[in-house]
Amino acid sequence: MINDETKKLASFFKQQQLPLKGRKLLVAASGGPDSMALLDLLTELAKTEGCTICAAHLDHQLRADSFQESQVLQEYCQQKAISLFEAKWPKDQQPENGKGIEAAARNWRYAFLEKTARKIGADYLLTAHHGDDLIENILIKFLRSGIPQEMNSLQAVSERGGIKLLRPLLNFEKAELLAYVQERQIPYVLDQTNLADETLRNRLRHHVLPLLKQENPKLVENANRFRQGMKQLTASAQAGLPEPELVPGLGWRLADSLPPELLGLHLSNFIAKKYHKRVQLDVQLLKQGKTQEKGGLTVQCYQKRWWLYPSRRPKPQPLRQLALNQPFAFQDRTYLLTDEPAGQLDQEQWTLTASFYLAPGQIRYGSLPAGQKLLLASGHHAKSKKEFAASGIPLALRGSCLSIFAGDEPAYVEYAYQKRPRSSQDRRVCLYLRKIAPRREK
Questions:
Q1: Which residue positions in the chain have pLDDT lower than 70?
Q2: Residues 54, 25: contact at Cβ < 8 Å?
């Protein structure tokens, strides 16, 4: 007979229209009462839904007794015939003096979980965040920034690394989960650091949350109503807005056609979706068209377009010899310059980016040297910066544009130029870019 808690969990999957039959679920398990409750509830649900449950555990090695979590999980998973995947966060890669330890630990954990999920072909990745966590998160973000997107960062269904990330316990209270494992005598480990008032989250958990729940016992319901309402408002604001265009090797660009307030919201949500970073763009700087850097990303307005790209750019690549019909690497992309028929190429691996003419001479490729001039159709030369500007390529990105030389003359500059005049001795070539294999999605 299915218990009430399992029915409540089953309703989550039905409401979210997430099929379970034949699916593989990977649970992020810490060995604490919350994740052990989720693991057990899913194990019960799997008996009727026909899904496969796996668990993943990362030992952060931040406490001397952290090995106990692994022991509890190993015993439970062995008893329930659940595949358990474990790893340790190397101590030599942990921040010194605990600086940014929480963020670093979270990044390591999610990187491990994503890697494991892809390795085993998991359809869903699940964490044990519950309703009390949701309230704490709202309060913390309200105190620290008041940014609506940050206050609504814990979503029931989202995506990370091409994998569906589920938080099916957001409608459960911490007390429910604790009672569940205690009644069923499911072993778990308590993190003693959660008992101290050293962190803001712990202070809120120990002193503020109990008072709020006294005022309204349905606080978790209200928090979920806030989460769902914010999601709907954000979706409404985003509806019909143009998606930024991917410019391979450079970044993303978007026409300057939105009001600054809406542009800020749109780009902030886009950054959260693509880079898993929560940023708040300065609306005043957007109004003035000024560049700003947030979370290692640069937002820049140039020639009536907004650009978004990683602030740390690769160094310009010096010119080097190029052989026709052989793949070559530039920055983080792979190209092929060929004078052979396109039918010989695997169209699923390569995409045509340009076709132009090469004059006789040694072929070289790399970043366009500073001050290099380009031959125009008129027979005159023009400064390359004019061609870049006319094409809307900001200065910071020009070193990431592939250039191809025939002899001493540039024949092609990615996104900006290709040789205009040609003679009977010139030969036509095609430039292909190797497609990036998409991450596995279901």
A1: 1, 96-99, 342-343, 420-421, 437-442
A2: yes
Q: Are 90 and 412 in contact (CB under 8 A)?
A: no
Spatial CB neighbours of 157, under 8 Å, sequence gap ≥ 6: 16, 18, 164, 165, 166, 167
Q: Which of 308, 371, 313, 363 is nearest to 335 (CA)?
A: 363
Residue indicated by tokens 């191809």: 404
* β-strand pairing of 305-310 with 320-321: unpaired
Full-model pTM: 0.68
- Per-residue HEC secondary structure of 43-89 comes to HHHHHHHCCEEEEEEEECCCCCCCHHHHHHHHHHHHHHCCEEEEEEC
Q: Which residues contact 206 (CB under 8 A, 6 or more apart)?
A: 197
Q: Which helix (H) or strand (E) holds 203?
A: helix 200-203
pLDDT at position 441, please?
36
CA distance 263 to 260: 5
Look at phi and psi of residue 125 and say left if phi exceeds 0, alpha if psi is from -120 to 50, else beta.
beta
Residue 295, token pair as written in the block: 């979370």
127 three-class SS: coil
Quick one: which of 33, 80, 25, 27 has its CA closest to 51? 25
- The pLDDT of residue 240 is 82
Q: For the chain, how long is the longest CA-to-CA vector?
A: 87
Q: Which residue has the tokens 């020009």?
A: 398
Name the residue among 413, 429, 426, 416 with its Cα closest to residue 367. Answer: 413
- Picking from 211, 215, 133, the residue whose alpha carbon sits closest to that of residue 176 is 133
pLDDT at 421: 63
Instruction: State the Cα–Cα distance between residues 395 and 334, nearest whole angstrom.
Output: 23
For residue 47 the two structure tokens come to 């008996």
354 three-state secondary structure: strand
Question: CB-side exposure of 185: number of CA atoms within 13 Å?
Answer: 0
Find the helix or strand (DSSP H, E) in which 381 lies: strand 381-383
Q: Which two tokens stand for residue 408?
A: 């001493």
306 contact partners, CB below 8 Å, separation of at least 6? 244, 253, 254, 255, 256, 263, 267, 299, 300
Distances (CA, A) of 256 to 244, 253, 273, 397, 430: 11, 9, 20, 19, 33
Calculate the alpha carbon distances from 208 to 135, 148, 178, 215 in Å: 10, 21, 20, 11
